[in-house]
Amino acid sequence: MTSRARQASRAISERKASEGRLQHAITVQREKVEFQRLSTLLEGLPAGHPARSSWLEVDDFRTSSRRPGADADHVVAVGD
């Protein structure tokens, strides 16, 4: 393979990687917007509505799992 061919191949690989990162960033942004829209909708339901209650319970679980020290080493098995 010539030097020029290697450069072209490298340029194509870099472009594909860049496109992949861009697509990922777009997907992440769209998911955040959809999550916020859904959260606003569900939190606007009346207190006691099953969908609202479930959403808030899942959110409590999700945020509590991000506490410092809440990792796989600290998980307690059911029945322990």
List the helices and strands and how they pair.
Blueprint: H1 3-43, H2 50-64
Structural write-up:
The structure is a single chain. By secondary structure, this protein is mainly alpha-helical. The chain is 70% helix and 0% strand. The protein contains two helices and no strands. The longest helix has 41 residues, at 3-43.
Largest sheet: none
Order of helices and strands: HH
Ranges where pLDDT stays below 50 over 5 or more residues in a row are none
- Beta fraction of the residues? under 5%
What characteristics describe this protein?
single chain, 80 residues, mainly alpha, 2 helices, 70% helix
Short structural summary:
By secondary structure, this protein is an all-alpha fold. The chain contains 2 helices and no strands.
